[in-house]
Every structure is written in structure tokens, then in C-alpha cells.
């Protein structure tokens, strides 16, 4: 199984549509066998779902993610664990231990504290992925 995590400096990057890197984990027999950091090459929102599909990703762990991206992942057959924060490695370990805390109702949640670079929803087409704001 291949698991991808939106990634920045060891942590889960909190905006799926703007992630520059995924950390991809190969999992066999319930354990991580290896991992690597993969550059998304500037792909955004819809292209990222295709990027994951082309890289044979089966599971995505991320922070905030909009409705359009969620639908694209569902159509690609990629299981989503959204609304997760903290260490990327720890999140994958929690997934493998069936203890990953995630939010199945996650929406694009980048408008709160700690995301000062998203002052205006329109700056990144939030309306196009059903942010809810």
C-alpha cells in the first residue's frame, strides 16, 4: 500500500491544494518499508488528485481540503484522512495502528489562525472547491 501525506518540514501541510511536497510511504505487512519526499511540481487542486493516482497512492493524509478535491480523490479511489495535524511520520504510524485521529467532515479550513498567507479566499479559488465560506 502507498500512503501520501501533505508535507512541509516534517509536519502535515495544512492546505492540500497548495502542497508543494508529499511524503510517500510504502507499507507492507502493516509496517513502513520506505519513504520518500516527492515534489508536486507546482500542481494545484485537481491536478494533485491526478498526481496521486499516477503515483499509485491508495491513502492520503492531509490537513484542510476542499469539497472538490475530496470528490476527485473519491473518484480516483483514494481513501482520505483529512483534518490531521502534527508529524507526518507519527500520523502514518497512527494510521497503521488504527488510531489516527482525523475529521471525516473536514472542509477547506485554512482561514483561521496560523494561515496568514490566505487572507482572501479568492486568492486561490476557494469557491471552486466548496470551502463553505
Termini Cα gap: 35 Å
Strand content: 15-25%
* CATH superfamily caption: Dinitrogenase iron-molybdenum cofactor biosynthesis domain
Our Rg estimate from Cα atoms comes to: 14 Å
Q: Percent of residues in helical segments?
A: 10-25%
| CATH fold field value | Nucleotidyltransferase, domain 5
User: Architecture in CATH?
Assistant: 2-Layer Sandwich
* Main sheet: strands, sense, barrel: 6 strands, mixed
CATH class: Alpha Beta
- Domain module count: 1
Mean pLDDT, all residues: 81
Low-confidence stretches: 109-133
Enumerate how many helices there are, as a single number.
3
Shape: globular
Written as H for each helix and E for each strand, in order along the chain, the element string is EEEEHEHEH
Class by helix and strand content? Answer: alpha/beta
Plain-language structure description:
With 133 residues, the chain is of the alpha/beta class. It has one domain (2-129): 2-Layer Sandwich (Nucleotidyltransferase, domain 5). 21% of the residues lie in helices and 24% in strands. It has three helices and six strands, in the order E-E-E-E-H-E-H-E-H. The chain has helices at 45-54, 67-75, 88-96, and strands spanning 2-8, 11-12, 21-28, 31-39, 59-61, 79-81. Strands 1, 2, 3, 4, 5 and 6 form a six-stranded mixed beta sheet that branches. Strand 5 (59-61), helix 2 (67-75) and strand 6 form a beta-alpha-beta unit. Helix 1 (45-54) packs parallel to helix 2 (67-75). The model is unreliable at 109-133 (pLDDT under 50).
